DNA sequence: TATAAAATTTATAATCATTATAATATTATT
DNA sequence: AATAATATTATAATGATTATAAATTTTATA
């Protein structure tokens, strides 16, 4: 138990972030929930166990994590900002039916753009939209299907 | 003058959209301003010539255009929805210094993702972030530089 | 250890883009 | 012209994010 907390604290210390209890728990949450949670997801889950938690802390902490490259902001939809603890470059697929966001591996670096020769590129993103396989053939996987809002 | 309006009206009629004056002017604006304007950009420009224009009309019209594939929503930043009248598939680069959004051609269709074999893909997006060439060497192009908020 | 300073968290208010609602105006149909 | 359908407008409501200041916790120093 303390091992887990210690290792999370270590990650924060290495990034020069003081490992407060709230920060450790938020880091833990995004590491264990890689389904690209929103601020509300994170807050509503954690506030059950940390009743004094403030939403402002979640916002502040995520901004801190973003600057430290511990988390990546996913902006597929304009109304919901999501967070991804997998910071390596990968693509995202959003299902327009169930709302789930899937990761997929894609060789983004191979996308060389001539017209951006003299631009400094810090960040490359790829995202698709459509209907996921579960929604396309729902009856087949009924037992496995999880509906996400 | 009327030729332009007529051709814009024609575009709308072909999409089964009644060519009201407001709709024609909004279509004209996004066709003439391909720098990915926000709703505010569109509204503030047009309201000077159409004082009765309502922001709700701009929102309604853009949604209508989106459904008709006359415009594409660009969501690079989570706080600003932008609109693009160039609906063919192309990439976007957002400069983190001046905020400008550049178009670039990229062969998105060549991105084949095995894990999405059984997914229905409706929309593919690619966007980069970084510093544009003008911001990297600002003195060189002083005369040409246009600062965009 | 006691005290002061700094950092963090919390509670609350403010902001702002978007959506919803209902009234008004315009256009089409009979 | 009267009626119905559609579009526009004005306005309010919503909701996510940001800002602000007070309260709490941690750290540094005497
Ligand atoms: Mn991901
Ligand atoms: Mn574009
Ligand atoms: Zn789905
Ligand atoms: Zn720039």
Largest sheet of chain A: 3 strands, mixed
What topology, given as strand order, has the largest sheet of chain A? 4-3-5
Helix count of chain A equals: 5
Element-by-element helix/strand order of chain A:
HHHHEEEEEH
> Would you tell me the overall average pLDDT of chain A?
91
How far is the first residue's CA from the last residue's CA of chain A?
32 Å
Largest interface: A-B, 35 and 36 residues
CATH-assigned homologous superfamily of the largest domain in chain A: Winged helix-like DNA-binding domain superfamily/Winged helix DNA-binding domain
Q: Which cofactor or ligand species appear?
A: manganese (II) ion, zinc ion
CATH architecture of the largest domain in chain A: Orthogonal Bundle
Oligomer: homodimer
Would you state the CATH class of the largest domain in chain A? Mainly Alpha
Helical proportion of chain A? 25-40%
> Low-confidence parts of chain A, pLDDT < 50 over ≥5 residues?
145-149
- The dominant shape of chain A is globular
Strand content of chain A: 15-25%
| Rg of chain A, Å, rounded | 18 Å
Number of strands of chain A: 5
The structural domain count of chain A equals 2
CATH topology of the largest domain in chain A: Arc Repressor Mutant, subunit A
**What structural category do the secondary elements of chain A indicate?**
alpha+beta
